[in-house]
Design a protein that fits this description.
alpha/beta; four-stranded mixed sheet
């Protein structure tokens, strides 16, 4: 269905962009064919290069083709907006409200295409650079004074792949360790691809250092990428995976509960679905609870279960301005940043 939808986008762009180009019929057919091929970028990746989420092609080619696909989507949006504006402009001209006809279509289309390519290039650069550190101060009502100043680093959606290979992962690890964290948590989607293809790329994670440990929960992509193999690989890397379970941290005397739930897609693979009651079973009374859950969806239920702080990922911040509205529909309104859900911080 996804590939059919992107094909429709490609057809729309070809129909609204190509006819206005000042080139011969042969050139127009070549441009149209190129647009339709770019629209099926993910289909070709799935059929020929190892998977839709992790095509096994060199970084440069992957970044270039991904950028072209992003530019196609942007151009489709720009053309749609142009068509709406042109309709109103043409109507205004015909009834005498506007003094002139619209600017020649091909000039607008070329300007829109250039804008889409530039924005897509910026988007690719933003996606593949080592992420910045974002500092957030959080106050939990039940946190004992002994835990004041706890420095927790959350990593999420690292998506080890041909876009994010070992050197990139080493840079993330180095940047994380430089913060001298007390605790490191990774809230899912560490990998895209099989252990055979990605083991070298995730290997730097074994060098993460934190006084209280490094803990992980699974994201949906771990299930798409052969869950059982990755659980064994994470164990070898010294990453403690919380699967509807918890640990009690108490080096300062007062207990702090760190819990984690599985991802919501797990049941579709015959594996345990997220179960916060099981994850919190047997926790000390009145101990503050930090919950790791890959998807923010379900936060109200976690708040009712007594969680003080939920850390999630999955949404990629809504990905692109405008598309974040669609993300909201799928994630109960949670897209990026900090939320208050009952007595819980998300």
């Amino acid at each position: 269905m996804f590939h059919f939808f992107t094909l429709l986008i490609g057809l729309y762009v070809a129909a609204r962009f190509v006819p206005s180009l000042p080139v011969g019929i042969g050139g127009k057919w070549l441009v149209a064919l190129g647009i339709l091929l770019v629209s099926q970028y993910y289909l070709f990746g799935r059929l020929s290069f190892g998977g839709m989420a992790s095509p096994e092609i060199p970084f440069g080619a992957l970044a270039f083709l991904g950028g072209l696909f992003g530019a196609l989507i942007l151009l489709a949006v720009f053309l749609l907006l142009k068509d709406v504006v042109s309709l109103f402009w043409w109507t205004g001209y015909k009834i005498g409200w506007l003094p002139s006809e619209p600017i020649p279509v091909y000039r607008i289309n070329v300007a829109l295409a250039i804008s889409a390519l530039v924005l897509a290039a910026i988007g690719v650069w933003q996606a593949v650079r080592v992420p910045d550190v974002r500092r957030v101060d959080i106050t939990l009502n039940r946190l004992p004074p002994e835990w004041d100043g706890l420095k927790l680093v959350q990593l999420t959606d690292l998506h080890a792949s041909r876009l994010f290979e070992a050197p990139w992962m080493r840079a993330v690890v180095s940047k994380t360790n430089a913060l001298n964290p007390d605790l490191i948590v990774i809230t899912g989607d560490l990998v895209d691809g099989t252990t055979a293809n990605r083991a070298r790329d995730v290997a730097p994670l074994k060098d993460l250092k934190a006084r209280l440990g490094v803990f992980v929960v699974t994201g949906n992509h771990e299930y798409y990428s052969n869950y059982r193999d990755w659980m064994a690989a994470f164990d070898r890397l010294g990453l403690s995976v919380l699967k509807n379970s918890h640990v009690v941290l108490s080096p300062k005397g007062s207990p702090l509960v760190l819990a984690g739930v599985t991802d919501r897609v797990a049941a579709g693979f015959g594996l345990p679905a997220p179960d916060v009651e099981t994850a919190l079973s047997g926790t000390p009374d009145d101990a503050p609870v930090i919950l790791l859950a890959h998807q923010p969806k379900g936060a109200a239920r976690y708040a009712d279960a007594g969680v003080d702080l939920q850390l999630s990922g999955h949404t990629h911040g809504g990905q692109v301005l405008g598309i974040h509205w669609l993300t909201q529909l799928a994630t109960e309104g949670y897209v990026s940043g900090r939320y208050r859900v009952g007595d819980m911080e998300l």
